[in-house]
């Protein structure tokens, strides 16, 4: 636990001062990140919220402050005194590094750090503002509206391909492949030209394993580097072909890649490494969170049959239902920030460079913010959940994620109103503390309804009032 010293900053938020640092392990009476937490983190969050507004844990990246109440998580996400620049120690100093001379280890991971640190989600203003403006051009409501029919068609084809005679795995049938396909469509990755990488999901799994580890090992860092650089090499080829086509007089395709190339030409994206970083992280983040929302959300609805039936009777509840699913069981459970300058938070000194972990999953069930927070209520109107973040790094792809989820649930409701979980079967959780998701979700269905249709009603994008970061990530 850090040594207290006099802070040069001021009180960062309201609340009664705490009598010295609270240790998360002591408050819980056991390790925080145990198997019970990975299966169901919400009882742990409840204890932390009740114990203190601020706790110290040695289980996150060698030591971090934890905030679990909604007001404090919102503060950390919005306040510029909490910096998003946090990749150096994360990437270059693995938790199991035992060398006395770290130069060799750092040299091995230099390529990883070079790209990783340039991704928009790890930038502060003014660089973040500059890059985000370039990225936002790819998520205009009109572009998402044009993409909506293609999303609906992709969902219909995948659902139609499911064997109707036996229970099936919703994750492998739809939740894993669909979001990767959709982000590829948005970016303009042409399958016919070999633009859509066949190894995307495998690469993403390696990155998620690293990013989602509270204390990643050297092996995890090296595997993530291999995946990240493979994605970068893939984009190098795609970008070179696009540049050559544009130089030869070809018309712009007006997709994400062409817009990012234009931003590079205009100096808004600075250099090939910064361009590659945005492409790679957008491709990764554009499907990682969405796939967990789809599987977690369907499981939650099927566990709450009253809510499933209510949604059957009133499809107008679907947009609000998706937001409630995000609040109730967020695919992204936490995010991190570094303290930019010494400050006081709830009477406790936080020093420059300290890591603060904002427990989004805990904040989304804070009873001070949400009435009956542990209940699923698709008629709830609490305002946007923190699942997409808030402040300058609010998820730039939020509207796309909401569109995909609405398209999927609308068609599942239409095709299989009697869908149910295959019992008895325990959930197959990924075991990732950050990305709460399922590796498998076995479901079964009855006879198809007489009015079965393969196409769902056209969905309208629901962008936030503020342009939603290219990665809905930590």
Q: Could you characterize what this model shows?
A:
The protein is an alpha+beta fold. 47% of the residues lie in helices and 8% in strands. It has 19 helices and 12 strands. Strands 1-2-8-5-3 form a 5-stranded mixed beta sheet, with helices on both faces. Strands 4-12-9 form a 3-stranded antiparallel beta sheet. The protein has a two-stranded antiparallel ribbon with strand order 6-7. Strand 6 and strand 7 form a beta hairpin. Helix 9 packs antiparallel against helix 11 and helix 9 runs parallel beside helix 19. The protein is globular, with a radius of gyration of 22 Å. About 8% of the residues have low confidence.
Task: Kindly state the number of beta strands.
Answer: 12
Specify Rg, calculated over alpha carbons.
22 Å
- Unreliable stretches, pLDDT < 50, 5 or more residues? 4-18, 447-458, 462-471
Strand order of the largest sheet: 1-2-8-5-3
Structural class by secondary-structure content:
alpha+beta
What is the molecular shape? globular
Helix content: 40-55%
Annotation field: number of helices: 19
Instruction: Quote the beta fraction.
Output: 5-15%
Largest sheet: 5 strands, mixed
Average pLDDT for all residues:
85
- The end-to-end span amounts to 23 Å
